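Progress note, project year one: complex with 6-O-phosphono-beta-D-glucopyranose.
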Amino acid sequence: MAEFIPVCSFDIVIFGGTGDLSRRKLLPALYHRWADGQIPPDAKIIGVSRSEMSDEAFKKFAYEACEEATPDKLDKVKWKKFEQHLSYVTMDATDTKADWPGLRQKLVTDADRPCIFYLAVTPKIYVPICEALGKAGLAEGNARIVLEKPIGTDLQSAREINAGVGAVFAEDRIYRIDHYLGKETVQNLMVLRFANSLFEPLWNRSAIDHIQITVAEHYGVGERAGYYDGSGALRDMVQNHILQLLCLIMMEPPNSIDGDAIRTEKIKVLQALRPITAENVNKDTVRAQYTSGNVEGEKVDGYLNELGRGSSTETFVAIKASVDNWRWARVPIYLRTGKRMKARHSEIVVRFRPTPHAMFGAQDAQSNRLVINVQPDEGVQLYLQIKEPGPGGLKIKSLPLNLSYQDNFTVRYPDAYERLLMDVVRGNLSLFMRREEVEAAWQWVDGLIAAWEEADTPMRTYTAGVEDGPIEAKMMMHQDDREWWDSGT
Ligand code: BG6
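Model obtained:
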């Protein structure tokens, strides 16, 4: 059984309390942490949004949200206790004249007690809400602000948000969430690299041939089409989740696990990303949209049909990236992500160089691989070459040493938000992004988008549900004599 260390008492105000993120993630996460005894009895959870709603109606909303997100039925007796933490305020949080005194009354006035303001709302109103919090005198004491991604839609808008929020809250009070950093396997990346002496001597250009990061999803954009079409795979997934994975794989060992030590190393990686320009963008990137197909036996629409109009937004992107520093010179990092791909799987593959001399002939051409399964089937596999038993000559096979989470741990994996919310209460910033990280990531992504426009990069297509992206993404690898790792092969 995992043991949970209770956090101190706190208040959390969820702006966008009746929205999708609150329903799917935040309320269930808080419920689970409470059910495991991590949240003290006097913590307060306050939903805020413009919809008229009583405390009772908000409790009912929260109950349905938690039931929907939990595989087993909720225990009603337990729930009655949990719902005592919940209350609701109707207000337009961008309005400085709204009922801020009403909200203040619900909070415990103790300067040491963390008071967390969670912005589960559109980034366009991050700054007005922070300004209103400041004017209402609520940004003082131990107040903290949590910002969801996307932080802006480009470097300029990210800078504006960071400056506006930073004018009210000091940097060490700002928690920029990338929920991938709260995933168990993503946290394990640092442990794998820095708690095992085995890897460090090999973790560089001399031993590593290339790295692949894949985040594939089998679902489409569905009800989020409105948001997604203004974003696309590059802004929605690469700018944040995938670049964060890349940073954890490629950063130098930090001096400690202190938030700033880790974040300083990640920023260096982002700043070392080689800009992709119009000269190489058509060779080193692929953008594509899914067309109609079959997902798990069901016919599904293509992206444009779902949208009901034309669009130049990509639902898939593949990129050959480079990190220009001493450790990673000439080691390509191939990134790909897409909606409506064959299956939901996220993994990182570190491919080592082949042996210098092929003693056993062509059959030992397969080199070692470290495969980190981020989700599902969380685990780590180290592929080694072994001799297939039996007579009839020396046959070599590549097989994994398999460290499966499921086989080794019986605990329930907490959702990423559970960990991240408790870290906000603890004041632990290690798994949150610093301002420069967000801005460096946007700078690289903005450059790529500008290169697509300048080079008129074509939009490719792939069939929903049956393919792992367009054929051009495979060809991008073939031009380098490499293949995407397919765990099925
Ligand atoms: C979100 C993206 O940040 O991450 C979504 O906006 C995506 O488009 C989601 O589906 C993926 O998260 P997870 O945890 O399901 O891999």
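The longest helix spans residues 435-455.
The two ends are 36 Å apart (CA to CA).
No further modelling is planned for this target in the current period.
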